[in-house]
Inverse folding.
């Protein structure tokens, strides 16, 4: 998702490699591949999230933090997660409401 996001969002034009301003052009193919990979991931995670409150089971963990940022990246790519992955979307809404995720 990192490369897909950096190759999609205009703010990263000329900065597609983290930590550099190297002028490399954004590549739409990397965005397409990132979306495809996220669809595979979400298809695997959806049944798990339908049975569990959090990524690792009943307790919030670092895995939920990592997952939160992965899903947020997918949202930045205009992926409609709620329509195809309702359990993941419900988990994301629940995690997003935690005080530690408020700006």
């Amino acid at each position: 998702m990192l490369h897909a996001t950096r190759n999609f969002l205009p703010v990263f034009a000329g900065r597609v490699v983290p930590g550099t301003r190297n002028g490399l052009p954004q590549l739409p193919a990397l965005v397409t591949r990132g979306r495809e990979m996220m669809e595979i991931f979400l298809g695997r995670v959806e049944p798990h999230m339908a049975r569990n409150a959090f990524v690792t089971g009943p307790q919030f963990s670092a895995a939920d933090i990592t997952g939160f940022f992965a899903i947020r990246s997918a949202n930045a790519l205009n992926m409609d997660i709620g329509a195809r992955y309702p359990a993941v979307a419900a988990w994301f809404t629940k995690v997003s409401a935690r005080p530690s995720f408020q700006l």
Observations:
- The helical segments are 2-6, 28-51, 62-76, 81-84, 86-96.
